[in-house]
Amino acid sequence: MITTHPHPSEKIHHQVDRNRLLEEFRRLLPPASILTEAEALRPYECDGLSMYRCLPWVVLLPENVEQIQRIMKICSRHGVPVVARGGGTGLAGSALPLENGVLLVLSKLNRILELDPANRLARVQPGVRNIVVSEAARPYGLFYAPDPSSQIACTLGGNIAENAGGVHCLKYGLTTHNVLEVRIVTMDGELVTLGSGGLDGPGLDLLALMVGSEGLLGIAVEIAVKLLPLPEDTQVVMAAFDEVEKAGRAVSEIIAGGLLPAGLEMMDHAIIRAAEDFVGAGYPAEAEAILIVEFDGMREQVEEDLARALGLLDACGAYRLDVAATPADRQKLWAGRKSAFPAAGRISPDYYCMDGTIPRRFLAETLKKIADLSRQYGLAVANVFHAGDGNLHPLILYDAAKSGELARAEQLGGAILEHCIAVGGTITGEHGVGIEKINQMCLQFQANELQQFQAVKRAFDVEGLLNPGKAVPSLHRCAEWGAMHVHQGRLRFSDIERF
Amino acid sequence: MSVSANDQTLKLQQAVAQALAHNTPLNIRGGGSKAFYGRAASGEPLCLREHCGIVNYHPSELVVTARTGTLLTELERILAEESQMLAFEPPHFGETATLGGTIACGFSGPRRPFAGSARDSVLGCRIINGKAEVLSFGGEVIKNVAGFDVSRLMAGAMGTLGVLLEVSLKVLPQPEAERTCRFELPVFGALDRMARLASEPLPVSGLSYDGCALHVRLSGAEKAVRVAAARIGGDQTEDDGGYWRALNEQRLDFFRAETNVWRLSLPPASQPLALSGDWFYDWAGGLRWLKTDEPAEAVFTAAERARGHAVLFKGRNRGADVFQPLTGKLKELNRNIKQAFDPGGLFNPQRMYRDW
């Protein structure tokens, strides 16, 4: 566990007296919406990335949009920073609180405002949980496509902030492809509508900027998402391989063959065994890699796609092909994949989940590199992989109780991310940058690109009060970190003053 | 696969640096096929046409990266050789259409409600900003949440934020078969039918209504398309794309107009708006073309009331408002973003809005 303090260059300084600020909040919020005692604040000290913690200064739980606007106006006037929080399931520490800031918890705004089957949209408040949208849409034969693995707990507001993904992104896209309109409250307390009730909005596409902005640009207070027809049929096949390379080639063949699976997942030997021990999904424990391939849509389409996929998997050397015969079998095949993270938790006291994305053709090379790094740092790594869209989740297994292991796990994770950048990929496919990968942003982007991000930030939040110290690093942070981190023989940010 | 071609990055960067030094506004031009769109252009021409060629294309990645001067026909030909396509079915509006102009205008064709828009397809870009810096955002992978999504912001920005140098796009496999079903229906029946068809798990890839006939395009595996067509009924044609191409390129009779042609983007099931003129419905009702002499203000007001927005797509008065006027904080944010990318106001001044 690391108690974090903001980087000096990213910290917002203010001299505001906490009690006087609380007096202002008490005038607009009921007592139950204001948390100030340590034991009440404790549950909010971290999000899903629990290795980083900070006890918030003040927690507010507003009940409506007007309260949020007034809170923002007060904070803006006093120069007090604000961090928004949804379900607190984020894996990058984007909702990590500040020791001198307000944590704005949106869980009380949890109503579905409108379900409009004719226009195939749902209008919801930001605290509505992801899975609730699909449940509400099901009677109309519709669903909401993005399904992050935390979907029973994560909220739409958080999904907007993180541009949440899931296992069906190759076919259905990420959150950004499934949102029509977002009303935001800006740092100065103004209410603005981005997007429209149609498929595009007026002016510049600010909705594109808002989705995935990790709470740096505005607070999403009302969200209209697109609903899609529920598929008529779904089929899943599990293919086992005795070499990782063969599985990787099968993924490429399926895509190059013109098939568009709803899900295309890969698991390596370590995670297959862990998952099999945990839930007994029926995976072959000796396999070096398995693929789980799902097709959905109209029955005849699914039949044809499945038949072609089976042919390709066979030709690529799959030694076992299990097609789920019933919905229960299908759930069982998925159960192993979906339990991969808790399964890793059973074989190791702690694990650290990475989120790099690579062009798929570098899969075999990347897995070999991870194996080398794993030996070099003396920590085991198990790999699950959204193979369809190149998003890799290496799980670094460590024991926080052993001195130095957490630091080593972080270094190993950093080395994996650097490899992802080197092969033309990215440091984060779906979890976000947050506090966790903020240093690696200095590797992925040049100084002038980071300055462009900072200019975008200022366009929405001129004082930089919204979620400071997350997602976009200061150049001073990069200079300091870069001094320890000479990349490909070049010192980056060499023209920045170091301290 | 990599086709070597002209990389004019340095030359273009120098041209922008010169313009910055002399405070000369630039009119960014590709093939000129969409010069009719937006408010009237002004500034020194900056031609991107020679900055062309495919930079990277691996069919099994479903991603292509090309320089923005690349002809759209050339890009589509290269994808078709691998049985792939641009999912958003961009209109060309002329043989000289380039990738850059297509993304800058953000146009998407009839497939858009079912396969995503131009902006949805964008994965990454390289640009020159108003400080004459060459910057890269996004990348060549389908999932990428590092940094603000600047690449998608560029789609539809009309070149006002920077010079697009390269764009990476997600591509899709071409469907094995296509078929179109046609029904003659009155307008309310057509809107209702479109809403129902778009809510069913059918391989629909086009839903348009011309005021007389509803066209339903199905795309997918041969058998699925055949069975779906049988379920839907109507007069059927094996589709060679003729009707849909004519619609997309605005070569249907409807678009031969002496009046203003408006593009309205609305919630698809919106009731017909009380504006005089002729209507054509695409995108299952979400995109509506209107030929009318109604004053601009009436069209903008009606679109906004219906929770959508309007653009004067082809009009006589390009000095006036062409895009839905913005107000309040939204107007301020748009202006701030323009400032953030192009503080000197170099790129395509007033092409979108008269105040920037």
How does this structure look, described?
Chain A has 4 domains: 1-108 and 462-499, Uridine Diphospho-n-acetylenolpyruvylglucosamine Reductase, domain 2; 112-229, Uridine Diphospho-n-acetylenolpyruvylglucosamine Reductase, domain 3, CATH 3.30.465.10; 233-342, Alpha-Beta Plaits (2-Layer Sandwich), CATH 3.30.70; 348-422, Alpha-Beta Plaits, CATH 3.30.70.2740. The two termini of chain A are 26 Å apart. The longest helix of chain A is centred in the C-terminal third of the chain and has 18 residues, at 405-422. In chain A, the strands form 5 sheets. Chain A has a 7-stranded antiparallel sheet with strand order 17-14-16-15-19-20-18, with helices on both faces. A 5-stranded antiparallel sheet of chain A has the order 7-8-12-10-11. A 4-stranded mixed sheet of chain A has the order 2-4-6-5, with helices on one face. Chain A has helices spanning 18-26, 38-41, 65-78, 130-137, 156-162, 169-172, 206-210, 244-256, 269-279, 299-315, 327-338, 340-347, 363-377, 405-422, 441-444, 447-460, 475-484, and strands spanning 2-3, 34-35, 52-53, 58-60, 82-85, 102-105, 112-116, 121-124, 142-143, 179-185, 191-195, 219-226, 228-229, 233-241, 263-268, 289-297, 320-323, 350-353, 381-386, 391-398. In chain A, helix 9 (269-279) packs across helix 12 (340-347). By secondary structure, chain A is α+β, with helices and mostly antiparallel strands. The model of chain A has no long low-confidence stretch (mean pLDDT 93). Chain B is of the alpha+beta class and 356 residues long. Chain B folds into 3 domains: 5-173, Uridine Diphospho-n-acetylenolpyruvylglucosamine Reductase, domain 3, CATH 3.30.465; 177-248, Alpha-Beta Plaits (2-Layer Sandwich); 253-314. Helix content of chain B is 28%, strand content 26%. Chain B has 11 helices and 17 strands. Chain B has helices at residues 9-22, 72-81, 99-105, 112-115, 118-121, 150-154, 187-198, 222-232, 242-248, 296-305, 328-341, and strands at residues 26-29, 44-47, 54-58, 63-67, 84-85, 122-128, 134-138, 163-170, 172-173, 177-184, 204-209, 213-220, 235-238, 260-265, 278-282, 287-292, 309-314. In chain B, the strands form 5 sheets. A 5-stranded antiparallel sheet of chain B has the order 3-4-8-6-7. Chain B has a 4-stranded antiparallel sheet with strand order 11-12-10-13. The longest helix of chain B is centred in the first third of the chain and has 14 residues, at 9-22. The relative contact order of chain B is 0.14. The model of chain B has no long low-confidence stretch (mean pLDDT 95). The interface between A and B is large, with 96 and 90 residues.
